[in-house]
Design brief:
Layout (H helix, E strand, L loop, with lengths): L3 H10 L5 E5 L6 H14 L5 E6 L17 E2 L4 H10 L2 E5 L9 H8 L4 E6 L10 E4 L6 H11 L8 H14 L10 H13 L3 H10 L3 H12 L2 E3 L4 E6 L1 H6 L22 E8 L4 E8 L5 H8 L3 E2 L3 E6 L3 H15 L2
Parallel strand pairs: 1-2, 1-4, 2-3, 4-5, 5-6, 8-9
Antiparallel strand pairs: 7-8, 9-10, 10-12, 11-12
Helix pairs in contact: 2-5, 2-6, 5-6, 6-7, 6-8
Length: about 325
């Protein structure tokens, strides 16, 4: 939790109307969009001028979130967004703790600003750019932290159905539908409160997990066909080339959750997915593990990324084939 001194300072900041910008990380997921929009719906009730500014487009499967149509995209409106940031009194950064997570151009813009930054995040090793920081890796999602942040401000009466819907979305996605170890009894008590407030949990689950396109299912089929096993190292991995993405009419968000299939195989405790992105000239990587294998440290050490002990991301500027060869070599070395 934040200290009493920090909370009182933030209460004073929010006591009068302010221009506030709320930012998720680049390639925002359910927790990033849920936390930013949840905070938006909370603050807008207090007569602040609020804007959620995503670094780039968010997936279509999150476009049903209340007020998602009001989110502005920095990469599509760089000049206008820069002006907005320059006029902001407060900038909230949610679900990331290092400015490079918003992309190079936006990072340069934010690093030049002399504004009050407030960070709410649950990843390891936070940077020190924010004046006020709520950072705790014990939480399974930033959305759950936003819920507690609102309670610390003694403003829980402002958690209406819109706030609750957004917060629930981030909790359910980042907890793997309440499967992951960071899901605590407190998490379930928070969710119970959100349902009491009016969250339609079964409807949200359907929006997130039970609605798909034919081409996305075909892409999933190809990904599973591409899965390779390194049984002696308790490891699996999936590859998807740009050509395969194009073949199945890939849209942002279509690969969400595919990496988790690699952990469903008996005897596997570490998995990865490698996705070629020719436009950015990189291979995007997601890592997952179960048990004590630390994919955060693995990604930081070898693939320029990071995250949590059991879920992390990284990237490679080598070709897809070269990246996979390097991955296999490292895994064989460290998991003998």
């Amino acid at each position: 939790m934040m200290t009493d001194i920090e909370i009182e300072a933030i209460k004073d900041l929010l006591a009068s109307p302010k221009k506030i910008t709320i930012i998720p990380h680049r390639n925002p997921d359910g927790d990033a969009m849920g936390s930013t929009l949840g905070l938006y719906h909370f603050l807008v009730q207090q007569n602040h001028e609020i804007l959620v500014m995503a670094p780039n487009e968010f997936p279509d499967f999150l476009a049903w979130l209340p007020a998602s149509e009001k989110v502005v995209i920095f990469e599509k409106n760089t000049e206008t967004c820069t002006e907005i940031l320059n006029k902001s009194d407060i900038i909230f950064t949610l679900d990331f703790n290092a400015l490079h997570r918003v992309g190079e151009i936006m990072e340069r813009t934010l690093s030049k600003l002399d504004k009050t930054f407030i960070m709410i995040d649950h990843h390891q090793f936070p940077d020190s750019f924010a004046k006020y920081t709520f950072s705790d890796t014990k939480y399974g999602s930033t959305c759950e932290m936003v819920y507690h942040f609102i309670h610390q401000l003694n403003q829980q009466k402002l958690i209406n159905k819109a706030v609750a819907t957004c917060i629930y979305t981030g909790i359910v996605t980042d907890s793997g539908s309440f499967r992951y170890p960071a899901t605590t009894s407190t998490t379930h008590r928070v969710v119970a409160d959100l349902i009491d407030i009016g969250v339609e949990n079964s409807k949200i689950h359907n929006q997130l997990f039970d609605t798909s396109s034919y081409s996305r299912l075909q892409l999933l089929g190809r990904a599973l066909q591409n899965m390779k096993l390194m049984l002696e190292n308790k490891t699996s991995y999936i590859t998807l080339s740009q050509a395969e993405l194009d073949e199945f009419n890939f849209e942002k968000g279509d690969t969400e959750g595919i990496v988790n299939y690699g952990l469903s195989i008996d005897g596997i405790d570490f998995t990865a997915i490698f996705i070629e992105n020719l436009a950015e000239g990189i291979i995007k990587i997601s890592f997952r593990s179960q048990g004590s294998f630390d994919v955060n440290q693995f990604s930081r050490s070898y693939f320029g990324g990071g995250g949590h002990i059991n879920a992390a991301g990284g990237k490679s500027d080598k070709s897809l084939a070269e990246t996979v060869i390097e991955f296999e070599r490292i895994v064989k070395e460290i998991k003998k």
